[in-house]
Amino acid sequence: MRVLVVNGPNLNLLGQREPDVYGAGTLADAEQRCVAVAGELDCELTWVQSNREGDLVDAVQGAAGSADALIVNAAGYTHTSVALRDALAAVALPFVEVHVSNVFARDAFRHHSYLSDLASGVIVGCGIQGYELALRRLADLG
Ligand code: DQA
After folding, report:
1. N or C, which end of the chain is more exposed by having fewer CB within 10 Å?
2. Domain tally, the chain
């Protein structure tokens, strides 16, 4: 299975950014852990991070024909982006939405996601381990 992992704005700062909220793990740590799990599950991973909404839309569009499933942490765009939602609806590939922090224990504006109702599953508040859990779930779904 080919899995595209799409990371949104400010996730490049994981490990330095609000460590009390997001923990000490970096995005590179999350990727490394997923690469290990991907080997175990015989998955092929492509890892993308951008601070720009259009780049994320392009990455999702590019998944058509090059990936079988996605893991999406759209970060702040989760709560704002109709464009990203439309891209995910257009490619119509299964995806798991991940949030490192427990968005439901945070600001009210983080309780709504433009993506969740399209997702196969949503993992929140499990730290960077959420990415591995998402990968295992997608592999189980086949
Ligand atoms: C986040 C949660 C979002 O609300 C926030 O804007 C982020 C990261 C998370 O992984 O916990 O940047 O998606």
Report:
1. C
2. 1
